C-alpha cells in the first residue's frame, strides 16, 4: 500500500463528497473553501484569496462575484481603492459557513467512528503529518533512497 496514493485518493474522494453535500446549500466546494478562508482572514484581497485557493486571479474573481451575488461576501474596500477588493463575510455568509462546516465535519467524523478511529486523534495525526511534510528538510540530509536504489 502506498501512503501518498491513499492520501491523494482520499482527498479526491472527500472533495467529491463535499461537492455533493454542498450542492443543496448552493455552494461548490471551491466557494465553500473561499468562504472559510475569507472568514478566517477578513479584509483579504482577491489576489491573496487566489493564492490561498491555488487558482488563478480571474477564476477567483468569478468565484468572488458568485459569493457577492449570493450575499455571502461583500467588498469593504474604501472608496478610491481602485480595483483592489477587501473581502469580508456577511452575516448570511457566517451562518452558511457554520452550517456547511458542521455538515461536512459531522459526516467525516461519523465515517471515522464507524471504522473505529477517534476523530480527534486522527485529526491530530493528520495535522502532525502535514506540519512535517511542510517543514524544510535539513540542508545536510541526503534524500531518501528510492526503491530502485535499494
Structural class of the helices, strands and pairings?
mainly alpha
Largest sheet, if any?
2 strands, antiparallel
Can you give the mean pLDDT? Answer: 89
The percent range for strand residues is under 5%
> Rg, please?
19 Å
Distance from N terminus to C terminus (CA atoms, Å) equals 18 Å
Helix content: 55-70%
Poorly predicted runs of 5 or more residues: none
In one word, what is the shape? globular
- Strand runs, count: 2
Give me the strand/helix succession: HHHHEEHH
Total of DSSP H or I helical runs spanning 4+ residues? 6
Biggest sheet: strand arrangement = 1-2
Question: What topology emerges from the helices and strands here?
Answer:
Layout: H1 3-22, H2 29-40, H3 46-53, H4 57-69, E1 73-75, E2 87-89, H5 91-114, H6 119-134
Helix pairs in contact: 2-4, 2-5, 3-4
How would you characterize this protein structure?
- The longest helix has 24 residues, at 91-114.
- This protein has helices spanning 3-22, 29-40, 46-53, 57-69, 91-114, 119-134, and strands spanning 73-75, 87-89.
- It is globular, with a radius of gyration of 19 Å.
- Strands 1-2 form a two-stranded antiparallel ribbon.
- It is mainly alpha-helical.
- The model has no long low-confidence stretch (mean pLDDT 89).
- The relative contact order is 0.10.
- 62% of the residues lie in helices and 4% in strands.
- Helix 3 (46-53) crosses helix 4 (57-69).
Amino acid at each position: 500500500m502506498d501512503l501518498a496514493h491513499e492520501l491523494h485518493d482520499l482527498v479526491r474522494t472527500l472533495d467529491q463528497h463535499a461537492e455533493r453535500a454542498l450542492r443543496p446549500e448552493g455552494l461548490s466546494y471551491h466557494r465553500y473553501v473561499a468562504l472559510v478562508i475569507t472568514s478566517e482572514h477578513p479584509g483579504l484581497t482577491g489576489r491573496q484569496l487566489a493564492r490561498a485557493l491555488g487558482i488563478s486571479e480571474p477564476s477567483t474573481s468569478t468565484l468572488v462575484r458568485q459569493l457577492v451575488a449570493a450575499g455571502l461576501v461583500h467588498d469593504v474596500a474604501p472608496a478610491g481603492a481602485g480595483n483592489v477588493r477587501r473581502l469580508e463575510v456577511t452575516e448570511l455568509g457566517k451562518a452558511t459557513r457554520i452550517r456547511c462546516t458542521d455538515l461536512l465535519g459531522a459526516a467525516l467524523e461519523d465515517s471515522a467512528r464507524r471504522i473505529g478511529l477517534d476523530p480527534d486523534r486522527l485529526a491530530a495525526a493528520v495535522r502532525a503529518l502535514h506540519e512535517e511534510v511542510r517543514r524544510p528538510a535539513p540542508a545536510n540530509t541526503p534524500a531518501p533512497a528510492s526503491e530502485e536504489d535499494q
